[in-house]
Amino acid sequence: MTFLLLFLAYALLLSGALARAGHRSSAPAPGAPPPAAEPRTPPTRVLIVGATGGTGRQLVAQALERGHAVTALARDPSSLPINHPRLRVVKGDVLDPASVEAAMRGQEAVLSALGHRRYFHPTRILSEGTRNILRAMETHGVRRLVCETSLGIGDSAGRLGLFYTLFIIPAILPFYFWDKTRQERIIAGSAAEWVIVRPGVLTNGARRGRARHGLRLGGFLLTVRISRADVAGFMLDQVRSDTYLRSAPGVCW
Hints:
It contains 7 helices and 10 strands. It is an alpha/beta fold. The longest helix has 20 residues, at 2-21.
């Protein structure tokens, strides 16, 4: 019983820390520039980072369906079994600034679905990789960044439901989620035109073509879910939409 009470206290403290450390959409980052006022052609050339993951593959496939010219950054290009005349797969590592710079040339927008499975020790893969992306965007004049993180941090803390808040995140994902808070802060402090997309628990279900989204989405009691296919569709919508510019909407079914 004592262990359970201590673990519960730890889980609640962690949730509070993730709330403070992540981005809060109600409080714009100090010094963040206003959205560009001049009209311009919607982006058509997109770089997808994390392209071999579950959401990343959906991003590649759906971006091609929408007519985008796609560059996919992958450590192992053979892990992306998609062939298309508008797809270019570039071998590289998001932690290698030179390979990110090379992939960024000629792009008009970036979609990031970075992820990994190194859950049980401290990591900065998400935050440092995102820092490299933003530096390369600045170098090459790329404005729009749409980045996938998760419900459960910043002003969405606790909104993955009790099971994730009190068990999965504190027991399995504390380092992973802490790096996501660093990732969000780096994005929010940048000069990019960014949208942080916070999905519920990801599934491999079919694309429904509809999802709930907003700045106060999710549930404190029950786990909220969404397919990677529907997350990819919502992320691609943000490439051209300014509805959630410089904010962090949640998205779930």
